[in-house]
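Summary for the funding panel

The consortium committed to producing paired sequence-structure records for every protein in the target list. Below we show the first two records in order, beginning with the earlier of the two.
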Amino acid sequence: MLQTSIIATTKKLGLVAGKETSRCFIGPHYAARDEDIDRWLPERQPKAASCTVTTLATSGGAKFSRSREMAYAGLAVTTLGLRSYASVESLEKLLEDRGYLMTLTQVERMVARAERARNASMLIGGLGNFFFTQNKHGGISVANIRCYEGRWSAYLYELTYREFYLGDVYILVPNFKTPERASWP
């Protein structure tokens, strides 16, 4: 299991308007955009209510892994504070029920804030800032937005994807509530 700590909480992220998914992560700040974003996500990102986003930091040493424990589902297990793995369907339901899903437009707003303030709520120059988002089939996908040499790139993965370069990463979680378990501060 990943070691996790809370490193930042954003000021209130206000109401965010919806927009076409194909227009997200486009512009001078962005270097690359995964084509799966348009294939797997709904055509339109919905309006998102005001929320506070908590940034969780994982640590455990950087390594490339194909094991189940290091798959993207492991980020969900860690975020939810579970002691063991659950089915993907259970993880998806828990993430949705707890309000831990973000829209691409919310993350775009966080990128804009990070660009202006270079604040600690987003990892800049590292492996990435992961977040959970609803896909067009009703399931959950994991997205990664990362900054390298001043430009951002966006990637999308299935929750069940097994290959994962695990290192120190951030997980962006709206409406976060600290799980009831001993490893949390």
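The next record, for a separate protein in the list, is shown here:
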Amino acid sequence: MPTKKPTSPEVLQAGEYKPTLTADLSDKQVVEEQTTQALANINATDEYLAVLKDRYSSVTIKDIHDEEGYRAAKEAKKVLQTTRTTTEKVCKAGREEALKIQKEWIAKEKSITGVIAELEDPITIRIKEIDTEIENIHKEEEAQKKLPFRIETIKKTLGEDFVINEDIVKALSDLEFSEYIVNERTLAVERKEKAIKDAEEKAAQEARDKKIREDALIEQGREHKRQLLRAIGMVSNDK
């Protein structure tokens, strides 16, 4: 009986053992050893599976009288079952070891990056603050350069008497300034049209009021005349 080999994940990772492809698989311990060794690397696994296929793929039981076939099937079942359960056990151990190592790496990563973050984050924040301050200065300088041209454009487009808020005009992007001019010009046209309409409505109302007053004066004059005529008896009281 061969000496039992270690089956720890370290051995499997190292790939130290290879299966003896001519081994006697009638012994359970031998099957376990061969399976464990085969799992040590991909090539050995493929070779061991090839051996199993070669030995057991043709195993069958012809009928109830086939005693030799029955014994061969029972032996094959035993070997294949042991191979399967050993594979499951070894692979489970490998997964558990891999998971343990993974958790250790994650913990190490968090530990190191946590310390680094305490140093890095304040520096990153300060860099962003300085970058923002520099960017704002550049924007202010650029906006200040554009302001005279924008003021001139506003006066030409909207009139000399247009009230300009320099802070607002200066803060606009080029696209926003173009939209600002269009919007203000549209509003100016609307205000002018409204002013004309209001003036026309006011004039019409004044004309109506004047007509009412004039009609009232005319009627007042007529009534005064009627009263005079009645006073001298030339007009009856019922007229």
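Regarding this second record: Residues 172-231 form one domain. Residues 67-158 form the longest helix (92 residues).
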